[in-house]
Amino acid sequence: MMDRKAIGYEQYEAQIRDLYNQMIRVAYAKVNNKSDAQDAVQEAWVRILSKQDTLREQSKLNSWAKAITTNVAININRQTKRSQPSDRLADEQQDPDCDTSSEAELMMELSELLGLLDPKARTLLLYKFYYGFKDQEIADAMKVPVGTVKARIHRTKLLLRRLMDEQLHI
């Protein structure tokens, strides 16, 4: 028999997973690219976590998260100004040294691996390696001691290495 804490945590985890899936659908509808959609959702999570104290009604979390995701996805579209897929294909065919497909595959694998992490761990890695925040800045943002941040980043890196190794051996 499971205790109440375990049941509560599982429900919370299921709600977060459901919200993540909703955010992916919203982002994908705006960018039409799986990698950019995942980037948009990750950026949205960072914004949500850093601004969570501004949410007045917890019941509006889903709507708020989807609105943030929409805005981030629109910004990604503005920044990338993607060419038409047929134009990209023609460019790749003209330039045989073009590594965009292997680079895209690598980015897709990395996004999938990050997607396997829990949101806290993913956020830590984004703060540290994508945005370049210092450990103390992350600790301040997440309201935890700097030693906790260092330990979590270390454990998450080890987990990522293990997941990469498992993926290579399959």
TrEMBL record:
Residue intervals of the RNA polymerase sigma factor 70 region 4 type domain: 108-158
Keyword presence, Transcription regulation: yes
Keyword annotations: DNA-binding, Sigma factor, Transcription, Transcription regulation
Residues in RNA polymerase sigma-70 region domain copies: 16-82
Gene3D superfamilies, per database record: 1.10.1740.10, Winged helix-like DNA-binding domain superfamily/Winged helix DNA-binding domain
Stretches the record annotates as Disordered: 77-99
Pfam families cross-referenced by the UniProt entry: Sigma70_r2 (PF04542), Sigma70_r4_2 (PF08281)
Signal peptide residues on this chain, from the entry's feature table: none
CDD domains named in the record: Sigma70_r4
InterPro entries cross-referenced by the UniProt entry: RNA_pol_sigma-70-like, RNA_pol_sigma-70_dom, RNA_pol_sigma70_r2, RNA_pol_sigma70_r4_t2, RNA_pol_sigma_r2, RNA_pol_sigma_r3/r4-like, WH-like_DNA-bd_sf
Family statement drawn from the similarity comment of this UniProt entry: Belongs to the sigma-70 factor family. ECF subfamily.
Entry protein name: RNA polymerase sigma factor
Lineage: Bacteria, Bacillati, Bacillota, Bacilli, Bacillales
